[in-house]
Amino acid sequence: MNESAPIPTRVIKVGGSLLQCHNLPERLENMLNALPKLRNVIIVGGGELVDTIRGWHEVHGLSEQWSHHASIRLMSETAQLLKEICHGFDFVDRIQDIPPQGNTILDCNYHLARHSGLEPSWKTTSDSIAAEIAKVLDANELWLLKSISPATHSVADWVQNGIVDQHFTQTYDHARPLYLLNLATPDSLPVKGD
Known about the structure:
There is one protein chain. This protein is an alpha/beta fold. It has a single domain, classed as Acetylglutamate kinase-like (Carbamate kinase, 3-Layer(aba) Sandwich). The chain is 39% helix and 16% strand. The chain is built from 7 helices and 7 strands. It has a 7-stranded mixed sheet. α1 links the parallel β1 and β2 (39-44). The longest helix is centred in the middle third of the chain and has 22 residues, at 64-85.
């Protein structure tokens, strides 16, 4: 039985901090229009909602496992928020429902609740979640959109400096092209990770 060839895909993680940018839809649209056409699957970070869980974790001594799963549930809300502010993007909550082309926001909660092998701790954030989704989709590229610019191209440095999560190097497929772009700063250029 022949498996069909994977659909050319780019997985894009939109950092939750970017949800504070008043012109996020325009910046995201301009970035997507500047790139070669691929199917874009967008994962949205938790931003300030997840920061609230971090605070509760510190105050109440919540387990990292509970905090991790609560944070993923909140990512469903930030995914819905991006859908509301970026009109014209498709929205799905199951990987098999991603259309073969266009821009689609994926609510990861369904997939992660059933199929994730990610460590349920603060070492795992939406960076590693996006890397896992890129593996599942056999994506051509992985993009991390953030509010920070790395000083080097080294992914190990990104981990050491807290730009990506501590679990990222275990989840990310180093053969897949990786780009980090500070979308909060106009005219930033993507940095290719190595």
